[in-house]
Amino acid sequence: MTPANPAATADPLRAHARTKSIVFAFFFLSGACGLIYEVVWMRLLGLFMGHTVHSVTTVLTAFMGGLALGSYLAGRIVDSPFGTRHPNRPLLIYGVLEAAIGLYCALLPHLIHAAEPLFQAIYPLASDSFELFNLLRFLVCGSLLLIPTTFMGATLPALSRYLVARQDTLGLTVGRLYALNTFGAVLGSFATGFLFIPALGMRLTTYGAALVNLAIALAVFILAQRKHPDDIHGLPRVPAPNPKSEIQNPKSSPPLPRPAAALILIAFALSGFSAMVYQVAWTNALALVLGSSTYAFSLIVTAFIAGLALG
Predict the structure, then answer these.
(1) Which of 142, 172, 238, 301 is deepest in the core (most CB within 10 A)?
(2) 207-245 pLDDT, tens digit each
(3) SS3 of 228, please?
(4) Which domains are delineated in the chain?
């Protein structure tokens, strides 16, 4: 095998480094767009469902559930033969996800309004039980929100797979991605409640965020045409992760027994459940003080996400 010419490989390597920096910036903007949608959806469902608690609960449930589902599914896809067939494939997957988010979220308000005849049809069936009617509204609206939030949750595994070149940089790279996305979310949630919706309204705010998602997707498709360092003849390729392999570290502590690990996971899940309960309760309480559920939700979400990022 003929060794690679350093002069010939320098330009692609520098281009790849620039691409990574651009992708980090895109993920910051993606986080901002995600929380723009969340605040708009809370306001939209508040008008549609008629109660702050119901709209906040629906949005948070769909948002967190979609993020979890998307992260799980995308993690399996990007580490499969389909995701590792080409080193730029995860970046292309990310571009498709951003395009899907932008297109769907631009249409979502129309989809929610289109569901009104459905609620008019089921209301006589559930007229004797207000709780049943609220449950049906929650299921329909939550299902509509679950689709784009699943796309959002899939973006982190896709970008992580593209950016992580070595196992020893996994934590650093994923941590940077998560931090940038989270700080973008802080900016998006605050700006939406206090600037964008009062100045532009919900429709223009939604369309503006959707245009940002679509612009990111277009730019990502262009960046994906650049040569990846793994494609340069003579450079060592980064092996795909083997889910069955384990990193053996002689200094590491022995693995936890399965019951102890299960208890830790259960405690972690209960902690997340409690956090969402606090968020709904605090939003409802703050709305009584501020007189606006949009301001209250924006403040609570901003403080909540900022605390997660700083912690």
Answers:
(1) 301
(2) 999 999 999 999 999 998 876 555 544 444 445 455 444
(3) coil
(4) 13-231 (1.20.1250)
